[in-house]
User: Fold this.
Amino acid sequence: MPELPEIEQVRKTLKPHIVNKMVKHVDIRLPRMIKHPAPENFADILVGQSVRELKRRGKYLIIEFNTNLRLVIHLRMTGALVAADSDAAEPPYAKVRFDLTGDKTLWFCDIRTFGTMHLIVNDDISLPGLEKLGPEPGSSEFSAEYLEKIVKNRTGAIKGVLLNQEAVAGLGNIYVDEALAQAGILPQKPARSLSRKELKELVASVNKVIRQGIKNRGTTFRNYVDGNGTQGTNQHHLLVYGRKGQPCKKCGRELIGTKVAGRGTTYCANCQR
DNA sequence: CTTCGTTCCTGGAAGC
DNA sequence: TGCTTCCAGGAACGAA
Assistant:
């Protein structure tokens, strides 16, 4: 499940392969993944366009061709963007093929086919999911004061707030469980019941686990690979995610597995209150 | 406004 | 061993 650190690692590794390259040909094997415009127009618009920049916002990747042409990509659960030599063998689960100048091919692969692509021409559509994103972890906007306003009057679990992309951008199930463990806060704790001190700790913990995920080139729990097809290493540094039934790294107590905010959740009942 | 359940999808694990 | 069932979850959507 690529989250902010994984998307950032994809951006870093993919960028040198595609910037200043021109799209020569596009081959769509699963038209369903092209959400806009109609798949039959998608290739026609892109062919002949050159990549200027590769950006990230939350879990979105944005390939900028020019100011009026942007390809917005979301990898969802199992999407992958991988660059390869054009004569290399086709990777598994290939759904869209972009042939670029310089004999490079950009592959969009996806096992579960939840990934999406929107090609935005002259702002012809708005993407609420992108435009309504909350602040980035690590930014000055993402502060305890900000989070205090968000959780006010929210009776639901704090985990649900952190998973909400409009509250804070880029977190998914892995880094939310990790941040809550880092902060010593129970995932199911009602959001509005958190003290100022806990919110401050939570902001610092989100920033810390995201920074660590980026440093470790992402978490490969199942399928994630970066733009070169390389796995991350952060899975070796997780406090709780995927460790249900195993001992807590802080106190040794057996970690609890449950469901919070509709998601599989792992926490330490001793260290998190 | 919030909150919760449903939907999409496939591979791998669990269960019988 | 081989079949069936369940589970993983990001985000959009509808309902309460």
In short: Chain A has seven helices and eleven strands. The domain at 144-267 of chain A is CATH 1.10.8.50 (Helicase, Ruva Protein; domain 3).
